[in-house]
Specification:
- With 271 residues, this protein is an all-alpha fold.
- It has one domain.
- Helix content is 79%, strand content 0%.
- The protein has 14 helices and no strands.
- The two termini are 25 Å apart.
- The mean pLDDT is 83.
Length: 271
């Protein structure tokens, strides 16, 4: 299905993907190599974290402490910086799958041959997942190389950084798939980006409010960032909760959104 589409996608997106890798790796190194100075004030930092409202602690990943290696990485990287970066990447790439290419006048030529709309969308959706995985994996690899030099290798479960990067990527793909679906249904790049960004902001806010508002707690089953944090991979490693809630659930939701986008795209004319 994607044998023709994936090579073309990587040919078209390799420069932007390379710049994303550079930027995300640089951000990861900045976070990890700053830890020794943070660890020197561990008691004060944890006291400050405990003084924050519970919702803000959850949103920042600080509910389990901010100065331990797991708490620091969660607060500074996996509960804040990396999810937002991966979501922006996924939304941008997902929007390009149909709406961006349609606006640029590229789809008419691609679909003039034997390539069907269904194969185009599913192939590019797989390519979007691959792009996000490459960038997140680069971050996890850079992190893995600097754990020991930065003093962050204590108390972490084996392979935990790779698991955390995978769950972050899976959650981000939900928003990328939403942007893809809206773009496929409307053909409007702005509508796709705006919708996905609004849902991202809303779910991020509700994730921070889980445990403080009854409504937010009731909605936790539909919050991708709550799914991503449920398994606590940094401390607990691989678990049934991580597999089902942090990885397979967001991937399944993403697949459903892409399927909706395919169905809508096949039923409308190109702009």
């Amino acid at each position: 299905m994607s044998a023709q589409v994936l090579p073309l996608l990587f040919h078209q997106r390799w420069r932007s993907t390379a710049w994303w890798v550079v930027g995300v790796v640089a951000t990861t190194l900045l976070v990890t190599l700053s830890y020794p100075s943070i660890a020197a004030s561990a008691a004060a930092i944890d006291a400050y974290g405990r003084s924050l409202p519970l919702g803000l602690q959850r949103a920042l990943g600080a509910a389990g402490g901010m100065a331990s290696p797991a708490g620091y990485l969660d607060t500074k990287l996996f509960a804040s910086t990396l999810p937002l970066l991966m979501s922006v990447l996924a939304i941008g790439t997902g929007t390009w799958v149909v709406a961006g290419s349609e606006g640029a006048g590229e789809l008419e030529l691609l679909l003039a041959g034997p390539l069907t709309r269904r194969r185009l969308v599913w192939g590019r959706a797989l390519g979007t997942a691959a792009v996000v995985a490459v960038v997140a994996g680069s971050s996890a690899g850079a992190l893995q190389l600097t754990l020991a030099p930065a003093g962050l290798d204590t108390g972490l479960a084996p392979g935990s950084t790779w698991l955390a990067a995978a769950s972050t990527s899976a959650a981000a793909l939900v928003f990328g798939a939403l942007a893809l679906a809206v773009g496929a249904a409307t053909g409007r790049r702005g509508v796709a980006i705006g919708t996905a960004a609004a849902v991202l902001a809303g779910t991020w806010l509700l994730h921070g409010l889980v445990g403080t508002l009854a409504l937010a707690g009731a909605l936790r089953c539909v919050l991708p960032w709550t799914w991503a944090s449920e398994g606590d991979p940094l401390s607990s490693g691989s678990s049934a909760t991580w597999w089902w809630e942090s990885l397979l659930l967001p991937l399944a939701v993403s697949a459903v959104l892409v399927a909706f986008g395919v169905a809508a795209f096949e039923r409308r004319d190109l702009h």
